[in-house]
Amino acid sequence: MNIRERAELYEEQLLSPFASKSARTLGRKRPTERCEIRTEFQKDRDRITHSKAFRRLMHKTQVFISPEGDHYITRLTHTLEVAQIARTIARALRLNEDLTEAIALGHDLGHTPFGHTGEDALDALVPGGFKHNVQSVRVVEILENNGDGLNLTYEVLDGILNHRTECTPATLEGKVVQISDKIAYMTHDIEDAIRAKIITLADIPRNILDVLGTTSSQQINLLVSSMVESSQGKQSINLPPELARVLKDLRSYLFENVYVNQLHQKERGKIQGMLKLLYDHYISQPDDLPEDILARVKTGQNDVMRAVADNIAGMTDRFAMKRFEEIFMPAAWKN
What we know:
By secondary structure, the protein is mostly helical. The protein has a single domain (about 40-230, about 240-335), classed as Hypothetical protein af1432, CATH 1.10.3210.10. The protein is built from 16 helices and no strands. The model has no long low-confidence stretch (mean pLDDT about 95).
């Protein structure tokens, strides 16, 4: 019995009957030889962390656009926080930690530059709309690895696709990531908003702080421990009703006072205008697209609009601004 087989046996014997077992994966679109050391879900986790799209997350904004300071959340730090929270919950519930981690690490690979501001811009420009969860699947299935994709398992792909609130993941591990994503971004968006002087702690309604606590560590600890307690031994993952209501209230507060804040909205308008100009430029001059993306147009695999969306979605914040400067600013004005 090799190391991977021992790990699979461990899963069968010790994980919850509701957990996903790597030996019983529904598999990959292209069958591959099994590793002697790693399970199938461990292989997926490694493929994601070694991908180019994962590396680019460190230079993509979470909420605040080009923030000044070293401590604002980026798309990469958010992803790592989601993975940490999700693994803690999965371990406590005896779910598959490797599957949970793989989903968490891959859930935002398709996110645009400039966070949801960039996503909203592309959603308005691309025929049929643009959703980052769908783009994340496109990244791992098609765009990575020179067009071959990462060939991930069904369970990981499903978790990545269905991590948004309105979706229903097929596995409990996917559901854990879905809720962990909310816990991570809401608790740390409060910290960033206070740091940016958009709100103060005293501005947040007392009914929220009295329940959740005043620090991100208190809030995360309460939400995680409560979710574990309410989901123990069940074939479902849920927060207690009272906490679910408070979290919904917090989300509403953040949308009204942070995400649509007047100063933030002013910057959103600039970014959306910039991305529209970039989009229109590449639509009219597709030969300016990167070689690998342009090749998909020339071979008929993608139309120009899909290729342009892939190109812009893959940009980091700084690269998008650099391309805008190169294309639209007179050379004498640069720097």
